């Protein structure tokens, strides 16, 4: 569902999007609209009724959706043993931004190495291939523990003195760069071979062709899947809490276990949604803009 | 927190009465009058046997004929030994079996269930009669679950590496300058923030093993935990020492029951008997040692 575009203002709707939208919403005639609205309302009302009328509904609402607990956990009160979830989300945001910048660079480097053809680069290619295989296969939690507890145990000067957030970002970069390099590689492979041939025939070197002809096209193609990975990355910053850093999810957990109520997790979830939904909408916007540009380009 | 226990006991007595347990309710009020007094409990133990007999409590059990006791995985000494709750070794395992015996259960009639701490307070029916997992009583928690009376009164202690700054400098002002670590969900964090009030945010880890790892790699200056656990940790981590323990804040460990579970009345009687006949003191001496050698300092 999330891949389908949101219904937007009609003037933005391009022919192919309009077709997809009508498939999503069904018959766009007046009768169709009435039927689709009615069935949506009935299904939603039934779900709400099941939740509200269940024997344990009041308990579940108190446990997960209690406004007092949600507000308290949002504000925090260290003296009472818990931290502000609202403040802790800033650590997630900072870790996410730092990790994202590094992942975009490292992922691209790995992808370019894997697609290189020079015989001198064989050891690097083997290394990059092994890295991608291993990093994608190993659970992120293990990376976080290995770096977060391993690096301090090495007792090196700079390496061993970092904060939990720094180790967490390192682990996120290590894991996500492997995924992102594959996204890049798919994007680069998808650019037609004739593009390289054309660039080379114009006298561009192989690297210049890659940089000025192939990559701009490849990256534009893979922006939506890249953003998909970054939405996932935003949530995975919560795993850095394993290293003792008090990020949003950890703050929620501390609150929950201090007063035995899970509403704080809902607060953390809402804050994560506030971060991810704009990113999802931004992805849709980029897809639409890209399609509009291509259609315009086709006419020239 | 001790001042809350009278209110909690009153609430328990009301709940027991409202559950229609006429037999236990009259007894409940008598034990409710002396929630923390052990002297009076001895006098009621004979009459307690009548209403809290094994057959009388069958209807309150999770599984008929069995006392289902829950705890987390893994479990640590000195509360459990060899990560096996079933062996009767370790303070909490021994207390569970002793309480079970008071209620007329043989050792084979005690079943152990696995209950992670963070799901022990989830809404819905519980898979156990009670959970024994070093869970501290607090008024906020007691609104969601029912606690038994104390089976261990807790003091918090500091564990650090020998020769580290905090091992020698732990005056009240010095204590504020260190980075502390503890396990998530423990009252140690509340203690750190409310009593020590350090300048730097403590680190909060998922498991005790993670906290120990952080101490060894010097990511934290000291870990804060209850004194028995602190003593045990020093046997595990080379060159570590219990720097000091803090005065009691009235904190105590209670058995965790589903909110309003009437069984708590009889379990409290069993605990009172174990206190008055010296069993708890004996088990404390056996498993939790004598901590008079650890200096007590002000937070």
Integer-rounded radius of gyration of chain A? 24 Å
Biggest interface pair, counts? A-B, 31 and 34 residues
Helix run count of chain B: 12
What fraction of the residues of chain A are assigned to beta strands by DSSP?
A: under 5%
- The strand line-up of the biggest sheet of chain B is 7-6-8-5-9
Shape of chain B: elongated
Low confidence ranges of chain A: none
Question: What name is given to the CATH topology of the largest domain in chain B?
Answer: D-Maltodextrin-Binding Protein, domain 2
Fraction in beta strands of chain B? 15-25%
CATH superfamily of the largest domain in chain B: Periplasmic binding protein-like II
CATH-defined architecture of the largest domain in chain B: 3-Layer(aba) Sandwich
Multimeric organization? heterodimer
Largest sheet of chain B, in brief, is: 5 strands, mixed
**Spatial extent as radius of gyration of chain B:** 20 Å
> H/E order of the elements of chain A?
HHHHHHHHHHHH
The proportion of residues forming helix of chain B, as a percent range, comes to 25-40%
Looking at the structure, the CATH topology of the largest domain in chain A is: MetI-like fold
CATH class of the largest domain in chain A: Mainly Alpha
Descriptive keywords:
heterodimer; A: 300 residues; mainly alpha; MetI-like fold; B: 299 residues; alpha/beta; D-Maltodextrin-Binding Protein, domain 2; disordered N terminus
